[in-house]
Design goal:
The complex is a heterodimer.
Chain A lengths: L6 H10 L2 H14 L3 H23 L2 H22 L7 H25 L7 H23 L8 H23 L6 H5 L11 H28 L4 E10 L16 H12 L2 H10 L11 H10 E8 L3 E10 L2 H58 L6 H33 L5 E6 L12 H24 L8 H4 L4
Antiparallel strand pairs in A: 1-3, 1-4, 2-3
Chain B lengths: L8 H13 L5 H11 L7 H14 L2 E5 L12 E5 L1 H24 L12
Antiparallel strand pairs in B: 1-2
Helix pairs in contact in B: 1-2, 1-3, 1-4
The chains are: A alpha+beta, B mainly alpha.
């Protein structure tokens, strides 16, 4: 018969308990359980509560949220940069919230193990990298569940660096907050926590002032880790149609904005973009082009009408990418696609018009032939079911209709020919895409401003924590009350 | 007494256990006493730890580590002692329960109250 739990089981349970409650919880479990099986079962039921009790004592909800917010902000910036549209989807929410929650849990457990004094000194320097590493690992795990990662390794690294900077600021600021040590609150003899005095309060104010330039510096530093974005554009000139108005009715000449809309939809279709990705090897040799890659490419393409008038217009189609050569090649290809699609679209329009008019013409021709035959027969025989006058009127109407349709068919045919020979509304490349020399992003001033703003927010929140009324604690005069 | 100083039902039971055990109030004994007081329901040892920590934060009890003993595998006990603030809170809770009991007794026509049998 066993007289106590196995030492290994005891050692494992000891590792799972925060130091402050380890001694008495292990003692209680030992006293209650004579066998290893019962000991382990009892430990499984008690240890989570014991850990939670310590987490509750050492973690402030406000500070935990602030820390989670810092990591969330870091990952949000990475997603906002690489795939802003994804943030509204479940993948985006999971991708940003999971690291933040992981960091919150790691920091809460870390504080439970090291106590409130653990936020001061060398441990504070370990906590932020540790939790950010866990957050990044959680992010990589979430990304691994997808067939195509939303954010690549560089994005995760940028998110980690930004999170680390923000979290370090929050942790550094939180060490200066005057949280009453537990030893003072409860009078426990075994809790050694340094007390804060007036000098630390003054230091706290200095810290808060320093947070703004520190945040600006952190933002500037983070901007150097952010991947550069290059933008290249192809300018396209739209020349008005040279076909005389009597040869091409106005209803066959769509407005530029409508035409551009139609052509844009065709150019941005999955089929066209997939071909560009494959031709320019933008998916780095991967066989299948994912929907995410198509979506990202659509987001990186922009169309801008620079000038528009009666005699013509000028628009530019631009593409942005991390590589300047890629930006230039895609922008060039997009410009060519717009020109090509315009010709094909115009030809298609006249083809369809011509086809419709021809079929109507044929039908009307048959009716005219039948009416002519009936009219001739009536004239020859002098009799018929209907009077000669009615037949003549009918014949006249059908003949007029046929003439009108014949003229329309001629116009459509002429327009088609003219479009084919480049006399209609034309798109011509005015200026091909050039190799961009400087990146358009990151904007260092913007990053610095954001960092400074983050510093102001953290300082304000820290002040708020300092001034926020705390729940009533035991005071010496209260403990002196008669029992 | 402020909102943070009022007692929940389980806190009342734990404080009563600490009060009744006096010098012998530590984890295992408190849990056994709580189990007895809250019968027929049972409480886990972990729930007792969390509640004791909370009561300590409120200043209702204080704790210290005793010397290690052999029957505990060489581990120390964390002993708890009721503080003046805790006793006052417990007394107010008991008075509140007493008032409730009086009103209910009158409402039920002076009949002696008996707990319903659990099926």
């Amino acid at each position: 018969m066993e007289t106590g739990p196995h030492p290994l089981a005891e050692r494992v349970v000891a590792r799972l308990l925060p130091p402050r409650c380890r001694e008495h919880v292990l003692g209680d479990l030992y006293e209650r359980n004579a066998t290893t099986g019962r000991y382990v079962w009892d430990a499984l039921r008690s240890v989570p509560f014991a850990v939670w009790g310590q987490v509750r004592r050492t973690t402030s909800p406000g500070l935990a949220c602030l820390q989670g917010g810092a990591v969330y902000g870091g990952f949000l910036s990475a997603y906002g940069r690489v795939a802003p549209g994804v943030l509204q989807t479940m993948d985006g929410v999971l991708g940003t919230l999971t690291p933040a929650l992981t960091a919150m849990v790691v920091l809460a457990l870390r504080d439970a193990w090291t106590g409130r004094s653990g936020r001061i000194g060398i441990r504070a320097l370990v906590d932020a990298p540790l939790s950010v590493a866990a957050a990044s690992a959680a992010h990589v795990a979430v990304q691994a569940l997808r067939t195509q990662p939303l954010v690549d390794s560089t994005g995760t690294m940028v998110a980690g660096v930004v999170s680390l900077l923000l979290l370090s600021i929050v942790r550094a600021a939180s060490t200066q907050t005057n949280i009453p040590p537990l030893a003072v609150q409860s009078g426990g003899s075994d809790m050694q926590v340094p007390r804060s005095d007036g000098s630390s309060s003054r230091l706290s104010r200095l810290w808060l002032l320093a947070l703004v330039p520190l945040g600006a510096g952190a933002g500037l530093g983070a901007s150097y880790f952010s991947p550069p974005i290059y933008r290249a554009a192809t300018s396209v000139l739209v020349m008005a149609s040279e076909v005389p108005p009597h040869l091409m009715p106005t209803d066959l000449r769509p407005r530029l904005s409508e035409r551009l809309n139609v052509i844009s939809m065709q150019v941005l279709s999955r089929l066209r973009l997939e071909r560009i990705i494959r031709d320019l090897n933008l998916n780095r040799g991967e066989g299948q082009v994912s929907e995410g890659a198509i979506m990202r490419m659509r987001q990186d393409i922009s169309l801008n009408i620079v000038a528009s008038g009666e005699r013509g217009a000028w628009f530019s189609v631009a593409y942005q990418a991390a590589d300047p050569k890629t930006a230039m090649r895609v922008a060039e290809r997009l410009g060519s696609l717009f020109v090509q699609e315009n010709v094909e679209d115009a030809e298609r329009l006249f083809d369809q018009t011509n086809l419709a008019v021809q079929s109507q013409l044929e039908e009307t021709g048959k009716r005219l032939a039948a009416a002519s035959a009936e009219l001739d027969r009536s004239r020859r025989e002098g009799t018929g079911s209907r009077s000669l006058a009615v037949l003549e009127v009918e014949h006249q109407v059908i003949r007029d209709q046929y003439r009108s349709l014949f003229e329309s068919a001629q116009v459509a045919r002429t327009g088609q020919t003219m479009e084919r020979y480049g006399v209609g509304q034309q798109f011509r490349i005015l200026e091909g895409a050039r190799l961009p020399e400087r990146p358009i992003e990151p904007v260092r001033l913007l990053w610095s401003s954001l960092g400074a703003a983050a510093g102001v927010i953290v300082a304000s929140m820290t002040l708020l924590f300092q001034w926020w009324p705390r729940p009533p604690r035991a005071r010496p005069e209260v403990t002196a009350l008669p029992a | 007494m402020g909102r943070g100083q009022s007692l929940g039902q389980f806190e009342q039971i734990v404080l009563t256990a600490v009060l009744s055990l006096r010098e012998d109030a530590y984890g295992v004994r408190i849990h056994a006493q709580v189990d007895e007081l809250s019968a027929p329901r049972s409480a886990s040892l972990g729930a007792v730890y969390v509640t004791l920590d909370r009561l300590e934060d409120k200043g209702f009890v204080r704790s210290w580590l005793s010397a290690p003993t052999r029957e505990r595998g060489g581990r120390a006990k964390r002993c708890y002692e009721l503080q003046a603030l805790g006793e006052r809170a417990l007394r107010e809770s008991a008075e509140s329960v007493h008032r409730l009991h009086t009103v209910l007794s009158q409402a039920w026509g002076g009949r002696t109250w008996k707990p319903a049998r659990i099926r």
